[in-house]
Amino acid sequence: MAITIRCPNCGYEGKGKITYKGSTAVGCVLLLFFVIPGLIYAVWQSSTRHASCPQCKWENVVVTEGSTGIDTGTGCVIIALVAGLLFFFMYLMA
Length: 94
Fold this sequence. Notes:
Radius of gyration: 17 Å
Order of helices and strands: EEEHHEEH
Shape: elongated
Strand order of the largest sheet: 2-1-5
Mean pLDDT: 80
Number of helices: 3
Structural class: alpha+beta
Number of strands: 5
Distance between the termini: 43 Å
Number of domains: 1
């Protein structure tokens, strides 16, 4: 996914970088050992997707071409909650 950005902090114009808040390692540990908190963390982390400047790491850039692909729809959240509830009930019955 190619996006073009303009950074008001350093003046960079060109290909932007897509970044997420949080840590992938923390997400993996939570999913392995604590399924429901892991699912909540994964949904939160995917909702923090944004474009940033590859030179100065500034997060408040202007996207001039393309899209960051940010989708705040409820589809992913509903799927994650249903999967979490299924795992929770399977855990209770085991």
